[in-house]
From TrEMBL, chain A:
Cellular component GO terms held in the UniProt record: plasma membrane
Pfam families: ABC_tran
Gene Ontology MF terms in the entry: ATP binding; ATP hydrolysis activity
Main location: membrane
Highest classification ranks of the organism: Bacteria, Pseudomonadati, Bacteroidota, Flavobacteriia, Flavobacteriales
Name of the protein: Iron complex transport system ATP-binding protein
InterPro entries named in the record: AAA+_ATPase, ABC_transporter-like_ATP-bd, P-loop_NTPase, Siderophore_ABC-ATPase
ABC transporter domain ranges (all copies): 8-246
Subcellular location: Cell membrane
Origin species: Flavobacterium aquicola
GO biological process, one term: iron ion transport
From TrEMBL, chain B:
GO molecular function, one term: transmembrane transporter activity
Name recorded for this polypeptide: Iron complex transport system permease protein
Transmembrane domains' residue ranges: 64-81, 93-115, 127-148, 155-178, 198-219, 246-268, 288-308, 315-336
UniProt record, GO biological process: siderophore-iron import into cell
Classification of source organism: Bacteria, Pseudomonadati, Bacteroidota, Flavobacteriia, Flavobacteriales
Length: 261, 342
């Protein structure tokens, strides 16, 4: 299928220290397709970050390969990789005077000349990204003057200007209230469907992801499964995410409930 | 985006101001020389008093050029460090680069008597001092960098810089104990900072070093803009981080090292000037900041030099004292305002 943007073949992830090799998950055969919004779910410490670091080429796999556009991710030059894969990270931005527009425009760096001059075409792309993410009214504000939810949209706009077929977001909904979580996920869904990009994000908001995502990747200590949310529900995967007696997944309502309260 | 019109006006004013300051700087001193005479002397005409012409060509012009070079170089090296270390309080003096350069120079000046005479001749030559100073500042910068990779806390980096400063001054103290009065005097004069007394040959070497440093900084503008979002984002945007960092470090060391070698350790200029540029131009875009820092640096150094010459009086104050008196309050003010840096 030509729709595949990123696939992993028999991928084993983990890390090696001096003495031992710690395997977090093995035999992963994931498939990220164009135009799909995909959530990565798993309990804290299960290895979501390791998986993201491995498929973005920051960390080497223990075994197997990661193919981005049919090419091994390890064989990409930094600049070429930046033109195929953009990221939204959780880390705090260092202090600066950047405006929203300037921040979004930094995404054009893989395409601009040695001093980073924006051409008219570049400015056009930045404007479009700002419109798509609905932050036009903020574009002249400094990035530290806006709210967390707005900043998250600006960072998504920056990833959009990087003009890549794949965008990966690390816990974009953390620190946001319910309303902003929903509007952010809706935005991601709209973007993936309208622009044909593949968007992968990790999150702890399982019930929301079930309602909004095209596919989900669930990480449990035993296995890693990728499927559509309704199939995952009928397979009963969600009960295996958390090892706790008092928490169970209500298939009817599509969310987690407490037992014995 | 920045207001391009506002920037053009600001740059025009800055440039004009710099030219005026350059003339004012040459005109003022223990003897005041009229503007008109300065102009005729500099454009190759005959000044009405030959002593004036002598003073201008042999003393004040080289000093003014040195002030411009020193101001530009130190300010740019401060700008580079503030972005690289993600720390608004970084600068060549605060991070201990100047102390490192001092240590290098101290070894050369104070230690020259220990080595055989043919070697001490090489060491004490202008090249020897520049080399020692650059090596000193580079090694401190590398140490700071090493520490900064272990400590993510930006304040800790400053304290480490301060410790390097104390350490090097202690070593210098030990060295002075074993040196002669003449060597000690030479070193003490150097450490107070001095923009004058540079031969045209020295100015040429300094110009080449500063131009090289500025050229490397110019190449770093795009990486510096990427680094505004932090190391990981910069990498995700295709930046070859190790290469970019190497160029930035090289530029900073060459600038701070060569300037400290010739003009002595000059405090606060490298820290304060980039902030003035950032405040006036209200931007973090390094394309704008590079040129504005360059112009502000040259201008402020010329002003400091005029003040240190105490126009109309017989005395001259050490330049380091002036930059500290003007710079320290700026740093305190920045710290108090730090909430706004977020």
């Amino acid at each position: 299928m030509s729709n595949n943007i990123l696939i992993t073949q028999n991928l084993s992830i983990g890390y090696t220290s001096k003495k031992e090799t710690v395997t977090i998950a093995e035999n992963l055969n994931l498939n990220l397709q164009a135009g799909k919004l995909i959530a990565l779910i798993g309990a804290n410490g299960i290895g979501k970050s390791t998986l993201l670091r491995t498929i973005t080429g920051i960390q080497k796999p223990l075994l197997g390969t990661v193919l981005l556009n049919d090419k091994k991710i390890s064989s990409y030059e930094p600049l070429e990789l930046a033109q195929n894969l953009s990221m939204v990270l959780t880390e705090k931005l260092p202090p600066s005077n950047l405006t929203v527009f300037e921040l979004a425009a930094l995404g054009r760096q893989p395409y601009t000349n040695w001093i980073g001059t924006l051409s008219d075409a570049d400015i056009q792309i930045v404007q479009e990204a700002i419109e798509l993410t609905q932050i036009g009214h903020l574009s002249q504000k400094k990035y530290y003057e806006i709210s967390d939810g707005q900043l998250q949209k600006v960072l998504i706009a920056r990833a959009l200007t990087q003009d890549t077929p794949l965008i990966i977001l690390d816990e974009p909904t953390t620190h946001l209230d319910l309303l902003h979580k929903v509007s952010l996920l809706k935005l991601l869904k709209k973007l993936s469907h309208e622009t044909g990009k593949c968007i992968l994000f990790s999150t702890h908001d399982i019930d929301m992801a079930i309602q909004l995502c095209d596919e989900m990747i669930i990480m449990t200590p035993e296995m890693v499964v990728q499927d559509e949310p309704c199939n995952l529900i009928s397979k009963g995967i969600f009960d295996t995410i958390f090892k706790d007696e008092s928490l169970f997944f209500d298939k009817e309502k599509g969310k987690f409930t407490f037992k014995n309260l | 985006m920045n207001n391009p019109k506002r920037n053009t006006i600001l740059f025009s004013f800055l440039f004009l101001g710099l030219i005026i300051l350059f003339f004012v700087n040459i005109s003022l001193g223990s003897i005041t020389i009229p503007f008109k005479e300065v102009y005729t002397s500099l454009t190759g005409g005959q000044s009405s008093k030959s002593t004036w012409e002598y003073i201008i060509i042999n003393y004040r012009l080289p000093k003014a050029i040195t002030a411009v070079l020193v101001g530009m170089g130190l300010s740019i090296s401060g700008l580079l460090m503030q972005t690289l270390f993600r720390n608004p309080l970084a600068g060549p003096y605060v991070l201990g680069l100047s102390s490192g350069a001092s240590l290098g120079v101290a070894f050369v000046i104070l230690g020259a008597s220990v080595v055989p005479s043919f070697l001490s001749g090489v060491l004490l030559s202008p090249y020897g001092i520049v080399l020692a100073s650059t090596l000193g500042s580079t090694s401190v910068l590398l140490l700071v960098l090493l520490v900064s990779q272990r400590l993510r806390d930006t304040m800790a980096i400053l304290i480490v810089g301060l410790m390097f400063g104390s350490f090097t001054s202690a070593v210098v103290g030990v060295l002075t104990y074993f040196s002669s009065a003449e060597q000690l005097q030479k070193f003490t004069f150097w450490s107070m900072g001095n923009l004058g007394n540079l031969s045209w040959t020295s100015i040429l070497i300094l110009t080449i070093c500063v131009l090289l440093g500025l050229f490397l900084s110019l190449l770093s503008i795009k990486p510096l803009n990427a680094l505004l979002l932090g190391e990981n984002y910069a990498k995700s945007m295709g930046l070859n981080f190790n290469k970019a960092r190497l160029i930035i470090i090289l530029a900073t060391s060459i600038l701070a090292g060569s300037i400290t070698a010739y003009a002595g350790p000059i405090a606060f200029v490298g820290l304060a000037v980039p902030h003035i540029a950032k405040l006036v131009f209200q931007t973090s875009n390094h394309t704008v900041l590079f040129w504005s820092t360059l112009l502000f640096g040259a201008g402020i150094m010329l002003i400091c030099d005029v003040v240190s010459q105490m126009p109309g009086m017989e005395i001259t104050l050490p330049i380091n004292a002036i930059t500290s008196i003007l710079g320290a309050p700026i740093v305190i003010w920045l710290l108090i305002r730090k909430r706004n840096f977020k």
